[in-house]
């Protein structure tokens, strides 16, 4: 049993080492391990806070690439809006960079955290494409 958790730990360390050259200079890079762990899950359920309105629930699913430059196909589903489903592909390291921002933001607001939200850079890139 111990070996499998050790293997899992060394596997995630290997992933962190692969992404460090792409993400190491980014703000919040001390959260790289957490961001890579989020990336390996393949799904994030969260809510986008709209100014003066109710948060809008969304789910983001992706196919994690093995290497940072591998394409990462993503699907964003905006839950309250029927048919609001966006498919796009970005390099895997871009998804990890977004998650770095998520982890960095969560670290600044400990306790009683709202549901996860993707950073503004994600929404800007998605809807300006």
Given the structure, what is the number of helices?
4
Number of strands: 4
Give the helices and strands as they follow along the chain.
HHEEEEHH
Rg, Å, rounded: 15 Å
Q: What is the CA–CA distance across the termini?
A: 46 Å
How would you classify the helix and strand content by structural class? alpha+beta
Written account of the structure:
- The chain is an alpha+beta fold.
- It has one domain.
- Helix content is 45%, strand content 22%.
- It has four helices and four strands.
- It has helices spanning 2-23, 32-41, 92-108, 120-128, and strands at 43-48, 56-62, 71-78, 85-91.
- A four-stranded antiparallel beta sheet has the order 1-2-3-4.
- β2 and β3 form a beta hairpin.
- α1 packs across α2 and α2 crosses α3 (92-108).
- The radius of gyration is 15 Å and the shape is globular.
- The termini are far apart.
């Amino acid at each position: 049993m111990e070996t499998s958790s050790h293997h899992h730990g060394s596997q995630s360390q290997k992933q962190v080492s692969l992404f460090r050259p792409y993400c190491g200079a980014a703000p919040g890079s001390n959260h790289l391990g957490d961001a890579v762990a989020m990336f390996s899950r393949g799904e994030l359920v969260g809510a986008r806070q709209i100014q003066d309105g109710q948060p809008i629930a969304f789910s983001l699913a992706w196919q994690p690439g093995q290497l940072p430059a591998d394409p990462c196909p993503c699907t964003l589903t905006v839950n309250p809006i029927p048919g609001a489903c966006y498919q796009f592909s970005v390099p895997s390291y871009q998804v990890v960079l977004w998650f770095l921002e998520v982890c960095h933001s969560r670290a600044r607001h400990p306790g009683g955290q709202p549901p996860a939200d993707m950073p503004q850079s994600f929404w800007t890139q998605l809807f300006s494409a």
